[in-house]
Each structure stands twice: as C-alpha cells, then as structure tokens.
Amino acid sequence: MTHFLDIHTTTPADLRQMIDTGRAMKDARKGRPKGAPDDDLPLAGHMVALIFEKPSTRTRVSFDVGVRQMGGQTMVLSGKEMQLGHGETIADTARVLSRYVDLIMIRTFEEQTLLEMAEHATVPVINGLTNRTHPCQIMADIMTYEEHRGPIAGKKVVWSGDGNNVCASFLHAAGQFGFDFTFTGPPTLDPEREWIDFARTKGVEVAIERDPNKAVDGADLVVTDTWVSMHDPESAKERRHNQLRPYQVNEDLMARARPDALFMHCLPAHRNDEATSAVMDGPHSVIFDEAENRLHAQKAVMRWCLGK
Ligand code: CP
Ligand code: NVA
Questions:
Q1: Which of 31, 104, 171, 297 has the CB geometry, 3.0–4.6 Å to 140, for a possible disulfide?
Q2: What gap in Å lies between CA 202 and CA 221, rounded to an integer?
C-alpha cells in the first residue's frame, strides 16, 4: 500500500516526482475555472474520505477541489461525528472505510492514530497533519520555493519561532531535498532531536542559533508559523507569546536575510504576532502561493498514492 505518511519515510525520488508532477498539472490547467476538470481524469470513479479531527480551511478545501478536478468524489467527515477512536478502534474504522472508499486523508491529533489507520487500511492513507508533522504543507512549500527561485538543494532555510509539526516536516525535507536548515527560537521549543538527527544523517547542515538576527544571515528562505498550535493547551498561550516575541519575523529581520529571500507561513497566521503584516504582505512573501500550491502538490500526492 502506497501511503503518504511523512516526508522522511518517502524516498527522495518519489518526492521529486510528486513536486514535478504537481508543477506540470498546475501549468496544464492555467486559466481554467477552478471547478473545471483536468484533461485526464486519474481519479474518475474514485471516492476519497477526508477526515478532520481538527479545524481546517486550506487542507479541507484544497483536497476537496483537487479530487474533483481529477474526476473523483469526496466525503468530508468530522472525527467527532464518527466512531473513530471512541465508538470503535482506529483499526476497525480503517478496515470499514477501506470497503467504501479508495483513499483516506486524515488530520488528527496523535501520530499513532494516523499510523494505526495506515496499518489497517487496505487503501492508501495520507497525513493531513498530526501533532508531530505536516508533510503535505511542506510539499507545497518546496514547490513554491522552486517556482520562484529554482532548485532548493543547497539553499539556506531559516525557521524562526516554535519548533512544531510544520518545522518538523521542513527538517525532513531538508534531509530529502538537500538544503541547510537553521532553527532559531527558545531552547524549550526546539524541534525534536530525532528530526534534527534525521536531517544531519542525510548530510545537510542543521544549526540551532538562539539569536534570530544571526540566524537569518544569508537566508534564502525565512519561515515561521503560529506560536500556539491546535494541539497546544490554551494555558501555554501567554508564556509562548513572551518567549517567542523576540523571534517575530518583521521587516528588520527580513532585511538581514539575502535580498532575494522568500518569506513563508503555512497559514492560518496571527498577524503581528509571529510575523508582521508588513512582511506577510511585503515583497518577499509567497504565503498565498503556498496556499494555492497545496492544491497542486496534493493532487500529485494522490496520484502517486493511487499509482496513477
Ligand atoms: N496550512 C494548513 O494546513 O491550513 P489549514 O489548517 O487551514 O488546513
Ligand atoms: N502548527 C499549526 C499548523 C496549522 C496548519 C498547528 O498545528 O496548529
């Protein structure tokens, strides 16, 4: 079964093929209304379940539109309204869903839920975000970087803020696509050691630099994300804000990166917390291209999963 669970568990060759396919598919439908079908309909006759245990705008809409453009059908399910994990085991849910649908995308809390779903499903499973990783986002981000600036291999990517699930998938991508990665943030919010080690074993440089001004020196790409993620307790909010304020991406910080550096944020953003509006709407920002490319990159991911 060809699941798309994470960037570090997918081969670099497959990842590269998905990025290139996504770009080609995007080009092929330029100028068409969003609801118009693609020329080939690789998902014709296919039913896709989109399961959400957490809120979502981009993941929900981009997967739904992507499946429809490829000729398939979707059902969007809320984890709360299903038996998932409370009325029955994840394994049984996986076995049952596999009898109705051809592909499952799930956004969940615990990584274990995703892994159990994948272990017991007899159709491909896609990771639409867990507490630990967010691979679909970073596929879109790699595609976005390369559209604007060419190959990402050998570049310097700087993450400023919380070493969270999105940061984790960026570290995986550093290893698989071959770019250097610098994390800047407070020690209590460092990315997981396992992910740092993963990237390092692939031969790329991973640096931890507590001073954000030093960190962004020579950066080709500056990335941040919300200071408090959906799985973080509300009680963490005040402390996080105090800890992370020095790591805000503002015009002063961006001015220390390379002049042609890009700025990314997976969104949703809290404007003027982790990044100022001046940066988000400024000349370095590609945040809405990232959002659009969720659609194109995930279409390529779904094709790969289904061998289409
Ligand atoms: N970036 C992202 O995954 O956004 P949503 O939470 O809106 O899906
Ligand atoms: N780190 C964020 C990403 C949202 C797309 C979260 O998990 O809430």
A1: 297
A2: 20
> Using CA atoms, how far apart are residues 95 and 37, in angstroms rounded to an integer?
31
Q: Which of 226, 231, 290 to mutate to test the pocket of ligand 2 (most atoms within 8 A of CB)?
A: 226
Q: Which helix (H) or strand (E) holds 230?
A: none
Pocket of ligand 1 contains residue 56 by CB under 6 Å: yes
* E strand spans, the chain: 47-52, 73-78, 103-107, 125-127, 156-160, 180-184, 206-208, 221-224, 262-265
Buried b (16+ CB within 10 A) or exposed e, 9-24: ebeeeebeebbebbbe
Render pLDDT for 26-70 as a digit per residue (tens, 0 to 9).
Answer: 999 999 999 999 999 999 999 999 999 999 999 999 999 999 999
Catalytic residue positions? 107, 134, 137, 225, 266, 294
User: Which residue bears the tokens 């809409």?
Assistant: 61
Cβ(36)–Cβ(92) below 8 Å: no
Per-residue pLDDT tens for 250-278?
Answer: 999 999 999 999 999 999 999 999 999 99
∠ CA 279-284-288, nearest 5°, is 80
pLDDT at 6 (0 to 100): 98
Query: In the chain, what is the straight-line distance between the N-terminal and C-terminal CA atoms, in Å?
Result: 14
pLDDT one-digit tens code per residue, 157-199:
999 999 999 999 999 999 999 999 999 999 999 999 999 999 9
